[in-house]
Fold this sequence. Notes:
This protein is mainly beta. The chain folds into four domains: 2-55, no CATH class; 107-199, Immunoglobulin-like; 204-286, Immunoglobulin-like (Sandwich), CATH 2.60.40.1120; 288-365, Immunoglobulins (Immunoglobulin-like), CATH 2.60.40.10. The chain contains six helices and 26 strands. The strands form seven sheets. Strands 1, 4, 7 and 8 form a four-stranded mixed β-sheet that branches. A four-stranded antiparallel β-sheet has the order 3-2-5-6, with no helix packed on it. Strands 9, 12, 16 and 17 form a four-stranded mixed β-sheet that branches. The radius of gyration is 45 Å and the shape is flat. Its EC number is 3.2.1.1. Belongs to the serine-aspartate repeat-containing protein (SDr) family. Residues 82-114 are annotated as: Disordered. It holds the Pfam family CarboxypepD_reg. It catalyses: Endohydrolysis of (1->4)-alpha-D-glucosidic linkages in polysaccharides containing three or more (1->4)-alpha-linked D-glucose units.
Amino acid sequence: ADRLTDALADRLPADAGGTLPDAESLTPQAVHALPPGLRDAYIQAYADAMPRIFLYLVPVLVLGLLLAFFLKEKPLVSHNAPTAAPAPDAPYATASVPQARPHTAGGAGAAAARPPHAGGVPVCGTVQHPDGTVVPRAALTLIDVAGRQIGRGASGDDGRYALATPGSGSYVLIAAAGGHQPQAVSVTVGERPVELDVVLGGAGRLAGSVVTADGTPVRDAAVTLTNVHGEVVATTRSGREGGYVITELVAGEYTLAASAPAFRPAALPVTVQAARETRQDVELAGGAVLRGTVRGSGGRAVEDARVTLLDAAGNVVDTLTTGADGMFRFVDLSSGEYTVIAAGYPPVATVLQMAGGGRTERDLQLGHED
């Protein structure tokens, strides 16, 4: 306030009079109401007095910076909160989880060969097939009885795995691998490491043949297998004798589809069993073929004649234009009645009957003399 008073005394004219506002009672409204000359003097006085106030804060900032150098640095500490025991009446399903037997013979040496665990009591073992061969790179997840994830890992090339637990209690170990039936086992952990082997069911296999209605093999047919979500699981082609094989399938429901040129595609549901072969043949119905030649008078082939095929309801099935030889060809037709119309000269219509898988030839004579 004293610095502002001195600045006003230096800048205000001596004859300004005693009606000017005091420095301690100044407000923006009061300054705005002053005449221009006096208002500018008050503003300049404020501008001269204020910067020195901020200079007084510099020692305080320097002192704070020096104190910060003496503060002790402590890293953040994170830890797992202890898992609360579930209430006795908490509802959770365990009927579908088979009990696993901890291994004691030879387990101590195998567990000692593993690296030390960061958590509590470890659960170790081998993921293997029913015949004892190991399953590498299997995904393993350990959860508690409430469904919370405790640990996660994968088996090595030797099929071995190791997961740490927060302490004693009951857990569920889930194992899965591509082309295998997933497995879940319950395990009880005490004070000693647990050696637990997990057996994954073998992959299923789907095989069969693509044939026609009379049993004739259809070679080089495209065979596609999709899961219940519509995703393509596998695709292959039938061999010389119409056979196909799809391996490494997880047991479940699938849709099997097959298609081949000159045949109508077919699809059907199929259930693949675990660790066994499921056979399913696919029957393809051949589409009828209609071909012929458009001729004018004297038997001459008519080029650029427009040929239209209608079904029994009058809907256009297909339309094409003849070439220099006057020929037309409609393929993959269902059984039924059709009408063929040729135009280019006065149009001619012919009604004919098609049988599924049959081949029909019909020449059309345009009714106009050259």
